Amino acid sequence: MQDSLDSSIAVVDKIELTVQEISRGMTFRGIYILLLQEKDGRRKLPIMLGMADAHALLRKIHPEATGGGRDVTDLAKDVTDLYGIRAEEVFICYLQRGEFMAYLFFSQGDTVRHTVARAADAILMALTYGCPIYIRSQLFEQQYVRELGEGVVSFPINALSLELLEDVLRTAVENENYELASQIRDEIKRRR
């Protein structure tokens, strides 16, 4: 856990998000999409998930449909409750190699500390603790889903996993969409 946070982060504009749904990727196997929506708006942020993350989040979001049950985040909450530690917020703040990363803020008395986690894990903790989820405004503006009409949406390339990028590249080449293939190839090269 970190003891201090860059003071510039404390004053950054942020947008509160709510968990909307998890859906299975239509084209790519094993990919799920977590949709977060701005609390006072209509724009949505997609977060790509693997099967294990999707199932853990679904157990929290729909315990009645999935059988629920306790998991490691419930154990973590039990332990932190013993020591008077509360989760204050999750703050999604940057992308790292196609994955959203977040700060989790915890308090104990007057002391506030944070740690860094993958956004999927941080959101699971937020659902367990019942704390709000925020995103850096600038990051949200760059990454939210753009609806192109007729049920088609656009995802930012830099928010896709390397595995998904490689699948999209193969599909683009098969469909002779060389402009998209070139963009995907450049993103893959940038990450390696």
Quick tags:
192 residues; alpha+beta; Bifunctional nuclease domain; 2 domains; seven-stranded mixed sheet; 8 helices; globular
How does this structure look, described?
With 192 residues, the chain is of the alpha+beta class. A hairpin with a 7-residue loop joins strand 1 and strand 2 (32-38). The radius of gyration is 18 Å and the shape is globular. The protein has helices spanning 7-10, 51-61, 63-66, 72-82, 119-129, 137-143, 162-174, 178-191; strands spanning 14-24, 32-38, 44-49, 85-96, 99-108, 111-118, 133-136, 146-149, 152-154. Helices cover 39% and strands 34% of the residues. The protein has 2 domains: 7-154, Bifunctional nuclease domain (Roll), CATH 3.10.690.10; 161-192.
Global structural class? alpha+beta
As a percent range, the share of strand residues is 25-35%
Assign a percent range to the helix content: 25-40%
Mean pLDDT: 85
CATH superfamily of the largest domain: Bifunctional nuclease domain
Quickly describe the structure.
This protein has helices at residues 7-10, 51-61, 63-66, 72-82, 119-129, 137-143, 162-174, 178-191; strands at 14-24, 32-38, 44-49, 85-96, 99-108, 111-118, 133-136, 146-149, 152-154. The protein has 192 residues and is of the alpha+beta class. It folds into 2 domains: 7-154, Bifunctional nuclease domain (Roll), CATH 3.10.690; 161-192.
